[in-house]
Amino acid sequence: MFNTLASLAGLRIDDNRVVEFLKDNGFKYPAKPFISNRASDTSYWVQNKKLGIDLLFQAKNYLTRYPLIPGNKKGIFVPVLNSARWYNNKSNTIFPEDLDFSHSFEALKTKLGEPTMKSSDISPIWLNDDGTESFYRWKKTLDHERELVWGLQFDDDHTIREFTLGLQYRNPLFHMYDEWEYEDFEDFMGSKGFYRTAHLMFLQWAIDRDLIKTGHISAAQVKTGAAPVTAWIQCLNRGYILAEDFTSEEAFIRAYINNLSGHDILYTQDVAFAFLTDDALKQNYFSEEATTQLNTITYNEENYAIVKSIIDQRLTEYKSHQFKNSK
To answer: Do the Cβ atoms of 59 and 67 come closer than 8 Å?
Structure first.
């Protein structure tokens, strides 16, 4: 079962090999296999409780090898088999390293080494009340070219929660434009708004600090002023920004952009507070009035200097105490 699912990972839901696997193994083929961009979800699970296996079909995978697949109508996309998870082994699956659900934490470390991730690596809010880790995870590469990985999660009740197999997980920090809505770089260049401006200035800050991967020659040109930061975005040939696009300070960037520190320190909130002069608007910077004011912020040297100072200060705080004493 493990090797079979590994061979199917990344294939579209209507691929004959996937359809046959679902039928032969008692999975119900979804009545509506394709996903609309008007839906709230971009993925769905197909479950088989008798086997103890869930299959995730996802349209947005944020992997170059697995781009969005348009359906036969505009706004419709075809999901691929993103991952499988086993929450028991009624299927008698043979896992790598002869692992099974009975393995202890020490036995897992003996076979797999130290955990790849612990709960607090995501955010301190995932810790138990007594400060202990709520879970540990291992992730191992199965096929680098296909971006295929497998792993497991060991919980604080001293049991393996699940084994997993599937495509490498990617989750954007933010979007400059969204292909899901059929946007492209030209749409981005013609757009305006607070979040566009704030994210551009964050990228400018990262480039100035040499935190952007140098695979895109325009990064050096942006730093010297020979090209705008939008030139680097164009070189990406995609509308989303990943933590993997940065060379270092990824932990700070993830925590600050996604408010993961557990101390309510968020980049866009900092920027909004810096430019809103009315305290009432600061308390509700998502309001229409506040949004109208924020959308007037322009990306210029004066405003960038303000934002750069904010980010520099937050980086210093994060390195010192991970925002524990920040206000």
So the answer is: no
Full-model pTM: 0.89
Exposed/middle/buried for residue 230 (C-beta within 10 Å: 0-12, 13-18, 19+): middle
Q: What is the pLDDT of residue 184?
A: 95
Q: Which residues pair with 162 in a beta bridge?
A: 153
CA distance 234 to 2: 39
Segment 53-75, tens digit of pLDDT: 999 999 999 999 999 999 999 99
* Distance in angstroms (rounded) separating the CA atoms of residues 324 and 261: 8
Domain chopping of the chain, boundaries: 2-167, 174-321
The pLDDT of residue 219 is 74
What digits encode the pLDDT tens for the residues 232-277?
Answer: 899 888 999 999 999 999 999 999 999 988 899 999 999 999 999 9
Sequence-distant (6+) residues with CB within 8 A of 287 are: 281
If DSSP states are collapsed to H, E and C, what string results for 71-99? Answer: CCCCCEECCEEEEEEECCCCCCCCCHHHC
Q: Of 13, 58, 48, which Cα lies nearest the Cα of 167?
A: 58
Burial of 164 (0-12, 13-18, 19+ CB in 10 A): buried
DSSP secondary structure string, 249-307?
-HHHHHHHHHT-SSS---HHHHHHHHH---HHHHHTTTSHHHHHHHTT---SHHHHHHH
Which residue in 70, 152, 168, 72 sits closest to 116, CA to CA? 152
CA atoms within 13 A on the CB side of 64: 7
Q: Which residues of 77-98 are buried (b: 16+ CB within 10 A; e: fewer)?
A: bbbbbbbbbbeebeeebebbee
